[in-house]
Specification:
The complex is a heterodimer. By secondary structure, chain A is mostly helical. Chain A contains nine helices and no strands. In chain A, helix 3 crosses helix 4, helix 3 runs antiparallel to helix 7 and helix 7 crosses helix 9. By secondary structure, chain B is an all-alpha fold.
Chain lengths: 179, 116
């Protein structure tokens, strides 16, 4: 589940931790990271825009209603990206269950991406879409969101060594696919 | 992968980021939708909390309706359609205590009033 704390921790990142104290601060922080959040939600939802917007709404709801509490143990951005990732994963599981109940076969996740384009960016999207989830996540976090591998590991909820391995393998895969 | 290739990848991702930013929904719209979700969610919780109370109220009302006085009264007035079969001849003799020295037949009103 989400990282939930009863009171904010006092750390060296007190500027960020203080955001947890009032709703206005949280709202401002969410607004400041809105574009980044949307980009990450898109990545977590396999670039499906409607799903990404839905996930983002759910995340804002969790944060503003106090269901997900920022405890200041990492930067606000890292924490927010982790919340988005978990929410997207949960929503994806729910969607699969709904489809199974309705006897609908889920569409292949590694199929063609929506809004297919031509050119290098389309190739990048396609190559990213074909990567294993962990590799795609770590590359997106490092190259798109400018996080370090340590921060990416925190967002992904894996060890640093594991994140580093996914990072190297992901880059290798991308090099092959974009060559 | 060398740093040059890293930079190439970084450029691709930067272009992708720009593209996403152009298509990103407005923050206020997203926040408003989240607030609407919260309102809908809170209504759902209220409805969910009210459901057992409503169920208990309905059950209580139903039981109250069932336990009116009319039913026991009707039961008290009820007689079996075969009750007459229990009225056997000479039943009164069995209901009285006979006295010593008195003939049993005298105690019966029918015997006293009847022809000898």
């Amino acid at each position: 589940m989400l990282s939930v704390a009863t009171r904010p921790m006092v750390t060296e990142r007190s500027d960020a931790a203080s955001l947890a104290l009032d709703e206005t601060g949280l709202r401002q922080a969410l607004e400041a990271h809105h574009l980044e959040s949307y980009g990450w939600a898109l990545s977590c939802c396999r670039r499906r825009r409607e799903e990404a917007e839905n996930v983002l709404q759910l995340v804002y709801l969790k944060v503003l209603s106090g269901k997900a509490i920022f405890d200041g143990r990492s930067s606000f951005k890292t924490w927010l990206l982790a919340v988005i990732r978990k929410t997207a994963a949960y929503e994806h599981r729910m969607e699969l269950l709904r489809r199974l109940r309705l006897n609908q076969i889920p569409p292949a996740l590694d199929g063609k991406l929506p809004g297919e384009q031509s050119g290098v960016e389309a190739r990048l999207k396609e190559a990213l879409g074909k990567l294993p989830a962990r590799q795609r996540e770590v590359l997106q976090l490092v190259f798109y969101h400018d996080l370090s591998i340590v921060e990416a590991a925190k967002v992904m909820g894996v060890g640093i060594g594991s994140a580093r391995t996914h990072y190297e393998r992901g880059k290798e895969q991308m090099r092959r696919r974009l060559a | 992968m060398n740093s040059q290739e890293d930079n190439g990848l970084r450029t691709h991702f930067a272009n992708l980021r720009e593209e996403d930013r152009r298509e990103a929904p407005d923050f206020d719209r997203t926040a408003a939708a989240a607030a609407a979700l919260a309102r809908r969610g809170s209504f759902g919780w209220v409805a969910l909390a009210a459901m057992p109370i409503l169920a208990i109220a309905v059950m209580f009302g139903w039981r109250t309706h069932r336990s009116t006085d009319a039913v026991p009264r009707e039961l008290a007035a009820w007689t079996s359609p075969t009750a007459f079969l229990l009225e056997t001849p000479g039943k009164q003799l069995l209901n009285q205590t006979p006295r010593l020295g008195e003939p049993l037949i005298r105690t019966l009103p029918a015997a006293q009033d009847g022809p000898k």
